[in-house]
Structure formats: structure tokens, C-alpha cells
Design brief:
Chain lengths: 268, 377
Amino acid sequence: MRTRRPMLVFSLLAFGYAFLYAPIVSLIVFSFNESRLVTVWAGFSTKWYSALMHNEQLLGAAWVSLRIAVMNATLAVILGTLAGTALVRFGRFRGRSALALMIGAPLVMPDVILGLASLLLFVAMEQLIGWPTGRGMTTITIAHVTFSMAYVAVIVQSRLVRLDPSLEEAALDLGAWPWKVFFVITLPLIAPALAAGWLLAFTLSLDDLVIASFTSGPGASTLPMVVYSSVRLGVSPEINALATVLVLLVTIGIVIAGISMQRRAKHS
Amino acid sequence: MAGPKPALGAWQDPSAAPLVEIRNVTKTFGSHYAVDDVSLTIYPGEFFSLLGASGCGKTTLLRMLAGFERPDAGRLLIGGEDVTELPPYRRPVNMMFQSYALFPHLSVADNIAFGLRQEKLPRAEIRERVAAMLELVRMGDFAGRKPDQLSGGQRQRVALARSLVKQPKLLLLDEPLGALDRKLREHTQFELVNIQERLGITFVMVTHDQEEAMTMSTRMAVMNEGRIRQIGTPSEIYEFPSNRFVAGFIGAVNQFEGRVMEQRDDLLLVRSDVAGTELRVRTQQAVAPGTPVVVAVRPEKVLLTTEQPPPGDNSLSGSVEEIAYLGDVSIYHVRVPGGALVEAQLTNRARRAVAPLTWGDPAWIAWGADDAVALLE
């Protein structure tokens, strides 16, 4: 029994990793496939990467997605931080529980409903006040902010709860005005939470297909939308190449984050 | 108490102008009275302690002086100015926090400079005053360190420097020594008092540690359930507690419940069943016969002998029930016929390995009428 247990543990581990990463590995492998057929291996090639470099539609969609994701993440961090701060630091103000509930709602609301609701709102607004004119990047960004700020608010809230309130009191006591305390003391101390919230909002936006499909208009197709529509016509290895590039970028990001966190842990 | 204190405290000088006036201040949290109609006057140069168990309202009172809590009723005056409505950043007051609250993302020097930077002082002056503060708390070599690279004692000194650098009229200290270990605490007590005397800043300290309050304060207020039970110098509070709560809270005390039989001038005769005899105690108050009263006497004022003492004010016979040998002193618990267990403390002046008294031995205890106090509430 004793000698067999490591084997059992090892095979469970291997199975777990395979379950998580086999699809990604096969995707990366087939991005270097010579053949146009995704399921048949015909030798090593990087031609799909050069094809990707010349695929205006895919690159354009990636650029749209990136811009939306950056704008969304930035706005979500600003609004989410304000909401989180209000919930933790402003005491029991009137409407606090309503705010807490409404902030949390997008976390559990199905994307389809959020997307449809946003679309109806945008159409109604255009008819009533003439803005936003048509649907495109602006409407996608607004729709993304409404749900990703909820995630940021939750992250900021949990960080603020653990922050010693006497730090802010000490700054007030030493003569700093409340707004200055927020910028000079509170913000630097919750910066890791802001960074995490920004990255999460960025990823959520980059990842989203459903809400973007509802709120997008002509000329504003995001990457997931383009990938999804092209897959319906048959998977092109170019998509594999694109996915491999994204996986590489994410891996680099995770490694950098891991190293800096380790350094910080050693530091303190 | 460290260093010579003026013979006459400012609180005894009728012409002295108070620095802090707390007038009938009340603060409630929900239905709970954290501070209940407290009035208090503190004079310049004092080291004043608010002493009490946790939840007695002392920290709330301190936070109201700092401006973090607003009283529901009453006024707060500092230097004659009404500060009740002023926010913390407009008060001539600084506070040293129990958790020290050092800004973790700033260096030691930047932490200390923070308050001066809010005043927009010239850089050279800031640098000079920060250096002087670092010197004062002996942290000059650590100016560039971050708080998480310091020991507890070092953090405490940085927190002190940061709260003193703006030269406030009044420094508030919330359990300043609470996070230090015992040995460091004793050393730091004297250091704090030294710094306070050198700078002449008025200190108001919150503590639950009676020894700390006794060692450091010029005066102290004993608090319980949101009210001040007694204000006085440490020796006044220890030797002349005005009620049972204070007598029991500060130091050890033997309390004998009884009833007044008669009063002869300033001598009170008290019939006490638990003592099993009649007790004599000196008092300045006029007390009617039949009034319930508690006679309180400190263990170190109780004389313990193996033979019957010459007739005096109070003497009881009993038997030794417990002995605690603490090195410098020994504490004896003697059961008297009335049922009370009396604590007597003896200084071990002679050097011997075997105590003259042991468990079960008959013994006599005695004290003078001046050594006890009569407590009516």
C-alpha cells in the first residue's frame, strides 16, 4: 500500500494536468501544422503565423478588442474603487444595502440578459436623447464596464476591509485633508488590488462574446466575435496561431506577476 | 515617577489656565453609552492617564479629543478654543495609535515628515526637524528603512517621533506600550516620561495597565462604564480611593463589609461580621450610625505576627491558609474567624530559605486606623 500510494498520487496529478492543459497543448501543436486540415498532422511549419500577420480582419478585431479591454478595465477600476470605498468606509449611509446588492447583481446575472438589457437601453436612449448614435465600440465598452466594475468593487472592498483604518486616521491626524489621504495613503496601499482588478476587468472584456454580440454594431467586431464566426465556417489554423500568441502573452504575464509577488514576499 | 516634579501641580494652582476642558461629554453607540456625561480638566505640562478596563470608554474619549468621534452632547475645548466641531486635520493635537499606524509604503523619514509636508514647510526645515526627531528617539540609523523592516520597539519610537514632530499642544497616546514585551515596556515608560518632560508637551494616555498609569502619570482618571470614578495623583488614588470600584481596580485590597456603629470625632467604629470584630478607621466625613460601609486596607499595610500584638486599633487572629513567595515579598492569606480571607504582604528583608510561618499556623494580623479607608459607595 505504501509503495503504491505515490504512483496513485502521481497518476491523479497527471490526469488533472492533462484534463486542464491537453486542449491548449493540442491547440499549440496544431498551430505549427503544415496541413490546412486541423485534425491531420502533416509536418512542422510556421506559415500560419505569417498568414496571421497578413490577416487584416483578425488583426483589426484584435486591435478593437484590445482598445475596448483597456478602456473598460480603466473605467471599471475607477468606478469599482469608488463603489468599494463607499461601501467600506462611509459607514451606514442611506441606501447602502441597496448599493451593495446592486453592485453584486452583475456577478450572478446571465450574460445573455445583461447583453439584451444593454441593447434595449442603448436603442431606447438613442431614440430619446440621440446618444449613443448607433452601436459600436462605445456601447460595447459601456456594457462591459457595467459588469466588470462589479468584480473590481468586490476586490477593492475585500482589500479595504483588511486595511487598518487607523492608517487613514493617522494621516488625517497629521493634517492631511480627506481627499489627500485617499490619494497619498489609501490608493498606494490598495494598489495591488487595483492592479488585480484592472487585469481581471481586462480579461473579462477580452474574453466576452455574448454581451459584445448584443451591443456591437457594424465595423466593431471584437476578436471573440470574429473567431466564433470564422469557426462556424471551419477552423483555420490561423486561429490556432492567434490563440498560441495569446497563450504566450498570458503566460509571460503570469510569470512576471509570479516573480514580482515572490520578490515582495521575500522582501517583507 | 522619573525626575523631579514641581512641588505644586498645575491642577492645584487656581490661576492656571487649563489646556483641555471636557464639559459634560456624552457619546452613545446605538443604545450603549460609551462615554456618559464626563467632565475633565487637564493642565499644560501634565502627563494625564485615562485608566480602565477595555470597553470603559477611555479610548472613545481619546478619539473624541483627536476628532475621530463627535460627541452627542457636551463641548470639548483645547487651549480655550471650542474644537467640538473641528475635523482631526484642523486640531492642534496629534495622536500615537495603538497599532502605531505607520504608513507601510513610506520610509521611516517619510513617515515622520508626513505631518510637516501637510504644512507646506520648506524642504530644508522639514529635513532638519525630521533629523532632530530621529535623534530624539535614537532612530537616526534607520531613516531609510521601511516599517516592516523594524522591530516592535523601533516602530513604537518612530510612531512617537511622527506624532511629536508637529509640536502639538497635546499628544494623545492610545496604549502606547501595549504591543511591547514586559522588559522593553518598563524601559520605555521612563523614556516616554523623559521625552515628555524635555519637550514640555501635554500627554494624555489611555491604558488598561494600572502599573503603567501609576509610574508615568502626574494625574490619572479611573474610568468604568463610561464614567469617571476618580481623578487624582497616583498616590491619592492608591492611598485614598473614593469608592469600592477604584479601591479594587488599583492594586490589591482587603475589603471588609460592615455597618457604622458610632463616630468619635474622625474615628469610625465599624461592626463587621466578616472580620468577626469591630474595626476602627479614620475618616474626614461625617457618617450616620447604621450606614453600610466597607473598610479597605492594602495588604502591605497589614502587619503579620506570630504573637499577639500590643493592643491597637485593629487586630485579628487567624490561621495561615496560603503563602506565595515572590522573592522580594511574600504574600500571606490568613483566614479570620468571621470568614474573611485577609491578604498580608511582607517584605523579605532577612535572608532565609525557610519561612517562619507555614500553612495552618496561627497568626495575628493588625493595622492602624490611619492605614485603612472607609468607603461608602
